Amino acid sequence: MASGAVPRPVRSRNPLDHGVPTGREEAWRFTPLRRLRGLLAGPDADGKVSVTVSAPAGVAVEQLDVADPRIGRVLTPADRVAAFAMARAGGATAVTIPAEAALAEPVIVHLHGESPRTAAGAAAGVAYGHLSIEVGPFASATVVLDHTGSATYAGNVEVYVGHGASLTFVSLQDWDAGAVHVGAHAYSIGRDAKLCSFTVTLGGDLVRLNPTVEYRGPGGDAELNGVFFTDAGQHQEHRLLVTHTPRSCRSRVTYKGALRGDAAHSVWIGDVLIEADALDTDTYELNRNLVLTDGARADSVPNLEILTGEIVGAGHASATGRFDDEALFYLQSRGIPPAEARRLVVHGFFAEVIDRIQVVEVRDRIMATVAGRLGETPADDSAEALAGAGAGAGAGAGAGVGAGAGAGPAGA
């Protein structure tokens, strides 16, 4: 039943239990290790991280010692960087939404990181952080985690969703151009609980995120959505692992990326493991990449391992391609100039995911950033044009090169 063996990483809080990667390991073969700026060595923190939380009444915000039993309840590090982040963070910010609360406004967590610089302006230090989010039983909430600054940063995020609860979680990586961010995000979903996450990666020199999902009871539902815009020289890597252990759980993964410029490199790894007792599982994952210029490369590797035949459904799809000529023709036939038509295609390509973010300020900021990358001033594009562009972009990406392929000269 297995279509590929999903890796089972060693998990330990002790950094010494995790070997120093060489780049030949499956988990590290796409990552340019020399650009991690010492994070694998785990030096003491000499950078600065400030965390501010804006939350509705009734939400508890605490600073915890890493020895607190709530820290590590969801996340046990699976690699050396995550273990150093837990050991060196010096504490954790904990956000707790009480049971049965129904928050009308989002919780906003703003994390700003700065690392010291040499006289020449190069990054010369690192920073660490740890965030814990707990949603009580039958509560509903939206939490936005906003990363900014120029830090070389290793951070862990653990999210505990109580039984019957519902959480929308938005993680926005809007770093300065020279930042480095290596993060582990762990989600634990209770019985009949629902998680809808959005991972949006825009800035930074190198960003590598490892989201993992586990279920604590039947009826759990996880939707993992992602958007990334990889510009010239950037490396953006998203490595997901969804483990289905209880029965009757559901997962949906949808990640969409656009790449532009020389040496722009995106990596998407989607691992789904269905254990032998996970009867009636329903899972599907999708990654689509739109390559805007020569010199950019998108690597995409979906992986599904099924240890029981009694499931509702399981599948995956991955595609990488360039602009779809039919979508461009559709827009130009309505009098839209070619350059504007291309911009609309990108907007429509992303809108399928971004429009589902209910926090208007965050949604508008993401679209404005994408518009800025494309060299335009955000405008009120017509709904009809955007709808047509979105349909065309989806078709174009789906007709592109398959999993694990690059596009353009770098993909050869």
Verbal overview:
Residues 1-23 are annotated as: Disordered. This protein is of the alpha/beta class and 412 residues long. It has one domain. It is 16% helix and 39% strand. The radius of gyration is 21 Å and the shape is globular. The two termini are 32 Å apart.
SSE inventory with pairings:
Layout: E1 48-54, E2 60-64, H1 80-88, E3 92-97, E4 107-114, E5 127-135, E6 140-149, E7 152-161, E8 166-173, E9 180-189, E10 194-201, E11 206-215, E12 221-230, E13 235-244, E14 250-259, E15 265-274, E16 282-291, E17 297-306, E18 313-321, H2 325-332, H3 338-354, H4 360-373, H5 383-398
Parallel strand pairs: 3-5, 4-6, 5-7, 6-8, 7-9, 8-10, 9-11, 10-12, 11-13, 12-14, 13-15, 14-16, 15-17, 16-18
Antiparallel strand pairs: 1-4, 2-3
Helix pairs in contact: 2-3, 2-5, 3-4, 3-5
Number of strands: 18
Structural class: alpha/beta
> Kindly state the mean pLDDT as a whole number?
89
Strand order of the largest sheet: 1-4-6-8-10-12-14-16-18
- The figure for the number of domains is 1
Report the end-to-end length measured between terminal Cα atoms. Answer: 32 Å
Q: Describe the biggest sheet? A: 9 strands, mixed
Protein name: Fe-S cluster assembly protein SufD
Domain SUF system FeS cluster assembly SufBD core: 123-349
Family: Belongs to the iron-sulfur cluster assembly SufBD family.
InterPro entries: Fe-S_cluster_assembly_SufBD (IPR055346), SUF_FeS_clus_asmbl_SufBD_core (IPR000825), SUF_FeS_clus_asmbl_SufBD_sf (IPR037284), SUF_FeS_clus_asmbl_SufD (IPR011542)
